Task: structure prediction
Amino acid sequence: MTRAADSLTPAHPDDPGLAARAAELVRDAVLGDLARRVVTECGADVGLVGVPEPPAGRRGRDVAMVLRHWAGTRADLLHDRPVPTGTGLGGRALAVRAPSWVPDYRAATTISHDHDAAVSAEDLYAMLTVPLLHGGTVYGVVYASMRAVVPFGDVRIAAVGRLAATATRALSGAAAWQAAPPRRVVPVRPLTPREHEVLRWAATGRTNPEIAARLGLTCNTVTGYLKSAMHKLGVRNRTELALAARESGLVDQYADQPAGPTP
Result:
């Protein structure tokens, strides 16, 4: 830890442009982490997240979203791929605003096959899509894909649904923070090395039990460190804590340092 890091201050919310950039940083972090966790925690071979984007033009069908985050891919045909409304499984999930899955994407008769070449390049078959929906707003669609023809059981569907719900709450919180009236942030006081360490893991979307397991601490101890960091940074909740940490550089500065024991 360095002295310079102790004097860093969070993003000043009086600047709407800065608040928008901070919210974008959080969205990217949450969605990137969601794609990775679909693979590491739900047993999928590939995790993808589509992000809604405004129509780029009126030629043919409007592009509803673009695949901006991925994990486990071998090719790049799905990277940054536009998904028009209603096309494929993700476009359908976005249109009907409900989860949907198929055991064999390329043989499915209930979806369009606009994206078969890209799906085939990844050797994907079974696919599950879940929209990130909160209060009538769709924040994206998460895909869990397998390189085999298999049914999606209730356990895996529920696991992806839980990750999607957690990510959606974080995205909704970031949007609310960005739209909130400007307020003054209490000047930062120096964080302890352990507060920095716990803060860094929290800013990447890890839960308190996950942080406790990684650092060899109890959940109550992790909660105490996070409350102390929130008080020192003058923020009110976990979302604002992540915003402050990312915009001030606290997370990036310690990204290459050891993060304690891993179970």
